[in-house]
């Protein structure tokens, strides 16, 4: 898609800020009978942003100078709800009269998002979320076979915990969206040196950008609180500097936290952070990037089954289990997410969304608490829940999510940690979650 329309322009000095806002989407999601409209688009020229709207039939053909590097963003809406601000590189922008129809703009949005693996449909057997690709096993398939498996079952996004060269090479041209992790031990160097941050980016991201969609760069995994926590914000800033310099507005820099980052999570409205992460939150807010959160209702249930009902953990409760003021909670997942929303608001940050970077349920390792049936129930209900619902606090929010993990990994600690996989290393399903295409 190299020739797009640009008949009407207005300029501003900063990009739109709602790419990952609390009521916006990070994946174009086509629901049955949905009606999508492209209301505006945005291009970046020499550091300035220009917005244009679908043209009228009277508009004239317009051509911009082709030598200028630019990025186009389509803002796609579902009814009145923004679903996606998608940035894509373009080489030249044209307008012709056939582009005046609304059908053209819908086709344009779909063609661009399809080309980058961004479209996920419900009711088709596809898994409308991501899956974490862990590699702590000595019997796992090759990276090429893993990517083929993702594609065969319709998984649209992959989380990599570190920039594994074999995996990145296998992902070229796959149309799978990538969340790419920075190893915890690399944080000090990236945080303290822009030159070393540039080197990391040049080695692990830049070579793949032409034929791969990197959605997120996650700066550390569950390091807040901890010995690496102080490096997260400066490392994020140094990587963001690179994205800004190169005009890569479609990549978000963030970090991954667990519920250990909360000092209080019950009731959700009492949510508060256990450590000072204001600088991180302000960076996320400034770039309209989400906070990534690992959410595991299983561990809360397994630790206290007398007080955490199983149906509350599995999304199967038929009525409210927890009442927090005027907000009613039927599942623990929503309560945890809202605790993070409340904690961020307590720090004065109200415009940062949440992406679930890990969630899941083990299929073995802890007796009756961990069966294939329970794991399948949780993961199916999780996928269904986030495809249709926000949370009681933010009911219009769309929450993107990643299931942990693709495979059972035999080098993880014995017990439940080895049994979160959707597949055995042989690529046989541990349980039936979706059909093989």
TrEMBL record:
SUPFAM superfamilies: (Trans)glycosidases. Residues 1-27 are annotated as: Disordered. GO terms for biological process: carbohydrate metabolic process. InterPro entries: GH, Glyco_hydro_17, Glyco_hydro_17_plant. Keywords: Glycosidase, Hydrolase. PANTHER family: GLUCAN ENDO-1,3-BETA-GLUCOSIDASE BG1-RELATED-RELATED (PTHR32227). This is Glucan endo-1,3-beta-D-glucosidase. It comes from Rhododendron simsii.
